[in-house]
Amino acid sequence: MRRWRLIGLLPSLNRVWRRDPPGYQPGATLNRLAHNLQPYACERLAGSQLRLTLPQGPTIDIYEQVQSLFLAHIVTHRFRLQGRTRLAEPLVLKVITGGWLRRNGVIYRTKAHHQGAQRLLALLHQYPQIAATLEQLDFRRVTFTVQQGLWQLEIEHFAASEVVSRLPASRRYLRLEAEQRRLLLSCFLMFSQLMEKCDE
User: Fold this and answer.
1) Domains in the chain: how many in total?
2) CA dihedral 141, 142, 144, 145 (to 10 degrees)
3) Where in the sequence is the domain holding 101, given as residue range(s)?
């Protein structure tokens, strides 16, 4: 009986564990990021979601996320661009940095071996300016996926983030500088153009 009582408590405990960390202000860091993105047009879709429209047409959705740390938390953002594709088979491609002590190029990794994956990899190597831009970009994660006729590029940048400490009490925002903003948005534009080429 006692065991079943403990199991019954699990959903409520999960809700407690998923609570926002103390001191987290949803959307506050996103406001700072929106300021860093000026003069690009931004639209607030939700408290923790922003849509950036580029002059060339693509729209990038930005999602705020928070991670709890010991006596602190960190707020980061995921930049996401989606589009339609003729590629039929699913694909997950990750971009990682080469080198050990310092960055030395980037590497494209995927477990997919179908024709669509081979074509995408061939095009990526055909346009080395994409890798050159990624190499200069200070990213945490870059993931490209294809699923059910849609492609998606998601980038999490090291900047556009805030660390909030409770002991000692402090807040430190790492702004998205103009050069890194240019590189970030260039990556999305180049991948969008790459997928147009891939679908020809």
Assistant:
1) 1
2) 10
3) 2-198
